[in-house]
Design brief:
Blueprint (H helix, E strand, L loop, with lengths): L12 E6 H11 L12 H14 L5 E5 L7 H5 L14 H14 L3 E3 L6 H14 L3 E5 L13 E4 L5 E2 L1 H8 L6 H8 L14 H11 L2 H6 L7 H9 L1 H11 L19 H10 L3 H6 L21 E6 L9 E8 L2 E3 L22 E3 L19 E3 L39
Parallel strand pairs: 1-2, 1-4, 2-3, 4-5
Antiparallel strand pairs: 5-6, 7-8, 8-9, 10-11
Helix pairs in contact: 1-2, 1-4, 2-4, 7-8, 7-11
Length: about 425
């Protein structure tokens, strides 16, 4: 088996993953993805793909943070906090549990802190790591964490772009230190943070840019123009102060985390997990499939007019081994034979048992194309006499394949015809 991809080589950065946010985002982005058993797995697959992409760049020190089940201090301070959100989908908790299992199998640190949201845990870890000299990236699309941006802390959006203080200035004309003041004025409907009624994002950004901070704005409130804006702030002062408190993340949680500590991935457990959820592409991306066996070169293609077929070890092509790839033509045939007795082959009626068969050791077969997975050159094999049941010249057997495809692969190349 190949070694896993170099996901955990030192890169000098700490990757913090907003696990709950990423899981919920991918749950809705890929809705409808299920296994062959009808089991919904869209959140697990989307999370794994996003995490794998980030690990390839930042796999040295990784911590994945989830929201704890208990209410946070924000719920205690404001009963209506996040009250406008839709109920949690019925099958999301089960997929979330699978995501946590995946994180553990990868050997990544996983944190949940009762009484605090993932944002507070991420913020505390980011500031702690920054103080210890790490460069920090936070994988999330949550705008609440923009207040953490600095020269050493950036946000990696799941879509792949990096959010930095420069990006924030170009997008909003604000600095990270102004972000909480801006959110306090404009509010946040997704978290049910009230803000100042009647002041939207554009007006809030303009006010903060003009006065520098919310504190300075309130100190000179009598000078704020137009008068209608001044009146709105005066009439909603209590909501403004509450929104300021709710928008500010905590960076002082008493967390004891050793960023230098590593755990090895459970390769066998991870392989079994991905196979159970039928994530064939991720098995390849994580390097968890056996390498193709070495083989000697043999002549190819078969004679003009030959028919091509293949044999899989099981009905599900994504998980099957390619047992044989055969070509048959009138009066003789050439084709492959892998270890194990085949159950069926393909060829024109009357095709005789060949003197020599050839096969490509493709390892695993793709359901779309036999050439999807890199293969070695074919190897020659002389069959026994009489032919095994199922080959040209014999009867019976079962299998899968397509007739009538004439290969055109040059000598030593990977054939792509004959898939079913």
């Amino acid at each position: 088996m190949e070694a896993m991809l170099p996901l955990f080589e030192p890169k000098g950065r700490l990757l913090l993953v907003d696990g709950h946010h990423l899981a919920y985002r991918t749950f809705f982005a890929l809705k409808g993805l299920t296994t062959s058993r009808g089991e919904p797995v869209q959140a697990v697959y989307g999370f794994a793909k996003s995490l794998l992409k980030a690990l390839k760049e930042d796999g040295d020190v990784v911590v994945v943070v989830f929201d704890a089940k208990a209410p946070s201090f924000r719920h205690q301070a404001y009963e209506a906090y996040k009250a406008g959100r839709a109920p949690t989908p019925e099958d999301f908790p089960r997929q979330l549990a699978l995501i946590k299992e995946l994180v553990d199998l990868l050997g990544l640190a996983r944190l949940e802190v009762p009484g605090f949201e993932a944002d507070d845990v991420l913020a505390t870890l980011a500031k702690k790591a920054e103080a210890e000299g790490y460069e920090v990236r936070i994988l999330t699309a949550d705008r609440d964490l923009y207040q953490l941006l600095s020269d050493r802390i950036s946000i990696l959006h799941p879509e792949g772009y990096l959010i930095t203080p420069e990006w924030l200035w170009q997008k909003y004309g604000l600095t990270p230190s102004q972000w909480v003041d801006y959110r306090a004025l404009s509010g946040d409907p997704s978290d049910n943070i009230p803000g100042v009624k009647g002041i939207g994002e554009k007006t809030a950004a303009k006010l903060i840019r003009e006065w520098g901070s919310l504190e300075n704005l309130l100190r000179h409130l009598d000078q704020v123009k137009p008068a209608s804006v001044r009146e709105k702030i005066l009439n909603h002062m209590e909501d403004l102060r509450l929104s300021l408190e709710l928008s500010r993340v905590r960076t002082d949680l008493p967390l004891q985390v050793d960023f230098a500590r590593r755990r090895e991935p459970d390769r066998e457990g991870l392989k079994a997990f991905l196979e159970r959820l039928e994530f064939g592409s991720l098995l390849h991306e994580f390097g968890l499939l056996e390498s193709p066996k070495a083989a000697e070169e043999a002549p190819w293609p078969p004679p003009k007019g030959a028919f091509v077929g293949f044999l899989l070890s099981r009905p599900e092509p994504m998980w099957a081994e390619l047992l044989a790839l055969a070509a048959a033509s009138g009066g003789g045939s050439t084709g492959p034979q892998a270890p194990g007795r085949p159950s069926r082959s393909w060829g024109r009626p009357g095709a005789s048992w060949p003197r020599t068969w050839r096969f490509w050791p493709c390892g695993r077969a793709s359901p779309w194309c036999l050439g999807t997975i890199p293969c070695s050159s074919p190897t020659s094999w002389t069959p026994p006499t009489p032919p095994p049941r199922g080959w040209p010249g014999a009867t019976g057997g079962s299998g899968r394949g397509r007739r009538g495809s004439r290969p055109s692969s040059p000598k030593g190349s990977t054939p792509t015809s004959g898939s079913g």
